[in-house]
Design the sequence.
């Protein structure tokens, strides 16, 4: 069961809120349609429910707020817009990556592909999918965690009739198993079709406020009935005459009058009867036509005579100030609500006031939107005000390392970048070894003096920048575009995976360079240097540092180009700055540092560790190492500062 209480979006520059005190309920085993025209606040209401936008109100999912749910993917499945995935990623790769984020087995991806009818298209790229297939993939993403509640924004938009019927069948099937389904639509006929034989409801909103809350049978009877559209300069007199004659003939006729215009909508009559009535009483008619379809939000039905029958309060009339009278065959006199339409109290026409959706979590009287028994009451933010809704980042993946590995190797970009690094390094090493003046370590690393960094370090920095750059560009972890979780667990997973890929790339570059030199110049050129340990540490530290610099910069500025710029800034800006630092005339030496560290340390480490400490110190003492260490220190502090401000959690 889903209960939305007092949803109110934040005001921007004095404008009226997109959602204003919206309260309704979507029950279990039920398909609920949130009906409204474009700009009525449907999507804004969904984003408030999912805590993607700030505002006021609270939404309970089976008695719990969303931020209280430990694993949201197993409680709520969301479809907002298109599939937020990399366009070159396959449908199966996208679902397998999201399986790691939701903490479900990877086999669940193949099950969902078969369920949504994409079993034979698992290897198709997301960019090549048609709109109907894209909707199927989005629905499969929402169903990965086997959630109880489905929230979908315009799921049938752009689909043909066959695809829309299939989608409605899936929604009805989920509701028949006891789940809750809430989806938005601007088509009244679609809202009635989607519920089908399942007990469904249609919640109509306009201007961000509740207009009507009806079951689907009542909605189809009151909103989709045949009617006679009449325009007359004497609409009020014609409405009274038609109602009086219908009562005299004991016929069920409903007349809906729009107070601000000359239009009438007459239900239960025909053009001939209305025309004859107008002719007998000498009333001019400018339009007389049969219509079938939706006329917009359902209007309040009040009797035109008597002060007791007139609506009072801010929610008594609907948009346009329309009023309606109904004549019943069982007795004369107007009937305000009638047996076929919702009463103002039940429908909550015009929206609910703050005191109806107050801090105690109770909904409108008779609407059934009160707080579930045993659910916690929201904290009051003030007298008559619902609690505030804070914009919370999306949850991080439950299996971050597995998620990052599938994200990294799920696209061909990673293999392409590594291949370019290997080919470029092999070619540069062959050219450097030809003149015989370049030291062997520089030859194996393919690092000529003309380049600020070797190709392996640049490519490692690019892979690190893509780790967060693609995350912000194609936010697969978030229900809404543009929001990517800043979780320390995800950051550590990215650091570990990027470091492993960088070290693997560094090893492959050395092996490829050595193999190329041995093939062209023989085996005498490639010899193991005596300081191999120090060189290996330096080479690995350079590639890993560049990868981390690109990753952190892309995470701070939310764009891949910032990560690449941070990598190139190390040799271009930081190294000259370090080299130009003033040096003391009598510099002190750090000789004997490993021995002094052994004296301070409580546990005893073997003497072999001294070699690693010295190698690390030589790496840091190098101008490039010093510049890279300074850059990483600044980027780590900046990332943690921006993350802590956003209340980052694990």
Sequence:
């Amino acid at each position: 069961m889903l209960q939305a209480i007092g949803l109110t979006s934040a005001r921007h520059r004095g404008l009226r809120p997109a959602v204003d005190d919206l309260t309704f309920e979507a029950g279990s085993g039920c398909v609920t349609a949130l009906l409204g025209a474009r700009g009525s606040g449907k999507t804004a209401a969904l984003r408030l429910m999912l805590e993607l936008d700030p505002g006021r109100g609270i939404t309970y999912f089976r008695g719990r707020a969303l931020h209280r749910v430990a694993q949201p993917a197993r409680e709520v499945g969301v479809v907002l817009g298109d599939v937020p995935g990399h366009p070159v990623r396959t449908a199966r790769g996208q679902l397998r990556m999201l399986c790691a984020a939701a903490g479900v087995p990877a086999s669940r991806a193949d099950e969902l592909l078969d369920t949504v009818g994409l079993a034979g298209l698992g290897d198709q790229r997301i960019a090549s999918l048609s709109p109907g297939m894209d909707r199927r993939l989005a629905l499969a993403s929402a169903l990965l965690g086997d959630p109880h509640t489905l929230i979908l924004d315009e799921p049938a938009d752009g689909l043909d009739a066959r695809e829309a019927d299939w989608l409605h069948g899936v929604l009805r099937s989920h509701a028949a198993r006891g789940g809750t389904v809430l989806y938005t639509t601007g088509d009244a006929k679609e809202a009635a079709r989607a519920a089908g034989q399942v007990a469904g409801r249609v919640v109509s909103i306009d201007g961000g406020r509740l207009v009507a809350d009806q079951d689907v049978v009542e909605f189809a009877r009151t909103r989709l009935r045949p009617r006679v559209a009449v325009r007359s300069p004497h609409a009020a007199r014609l409405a009274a005459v038609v109602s009086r004659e219908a009562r005299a003939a004991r016929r069920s006729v409903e007349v809906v009058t729009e107070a601000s215009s000359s239009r009438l909508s007459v239900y239960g009559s025909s053009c001939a009867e209305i025309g004859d009535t107008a002719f007998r009483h000498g009333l001019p008619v400018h339009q007389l036509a049969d219509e079938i379809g939706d006329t917009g939000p359902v209007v309040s039905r009040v009797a035109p005579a008597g002060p007791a029958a007139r609506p009072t309060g801010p929610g008594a009339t609907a948009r346009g100030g329309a009023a309606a009278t109904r004549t019943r065959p069982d007795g004369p006199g107007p009937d305000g609500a009638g047996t076929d339409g919702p009463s103002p109290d039940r429908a909550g026409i015009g929206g609910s006031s703050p005191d109806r959706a107050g801090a105690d979590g109770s909904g409108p009287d008779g609407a059934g939107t009160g707080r579930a028994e045993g659910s916690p009451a929201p904290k009051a933010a003030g007298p008559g005000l619902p609690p505030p809704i804070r914009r919370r980042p999306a949850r991080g993946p439950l299996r971050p390392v597995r998620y990052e590995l599938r994200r990294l190797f799920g696209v061909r970009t990673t293999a392409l970048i590594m291949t370019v690094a290997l080919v470029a390094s092999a070619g540069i090493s062959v050219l450097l070894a030809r003149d015989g003046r370049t030291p062997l370590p520089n030859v194996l690393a393919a690092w000529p003096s003309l380049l600020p960094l070797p190709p392996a370090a640049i490519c490692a920095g690019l892979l690190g920048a893509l780790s967060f750059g693609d995350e912000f560009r194609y936010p697969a972890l978030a229900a809404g575009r543009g929001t990517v979780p800043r979780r320390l667990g995800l950051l550590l997973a990215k650091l570990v995976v990027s470091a492993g890929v960088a070290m693997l790339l560094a090893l492959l570059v050395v092996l490829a360079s050595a193999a190329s030199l041995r093939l062209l110049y023989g085996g005498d050129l490639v010899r193991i240097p005596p300081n191999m340990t120090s060189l290996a540490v330096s080479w690995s530290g350079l590639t890993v540092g560049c990868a981390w610099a690109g990753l952190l910069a892309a995470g701070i500025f939310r764009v891949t180009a910032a990560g690449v710029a941070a990598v190139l800034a190390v040799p271009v800006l930081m190294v000259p700055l370090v080299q130009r630092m003033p040096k003391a005339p009598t510099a002190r030496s750090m000789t004997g540092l490993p021995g002094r560290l052994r004296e301070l340390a409580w546990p005893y480490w073997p003497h072999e560790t001294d070699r690693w400490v010295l190698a690390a110190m030589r790496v840091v003492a190098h101008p490039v190492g010093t510049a890279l260490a300074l850059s990483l220190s600044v980027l780590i502090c900046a990332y943690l500062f921006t993350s802590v401000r956003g209340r980052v959690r694990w």
About this structure: The chain is about 45% helix and 15% strand. The first strand starts at residue 2 and ends at 9.
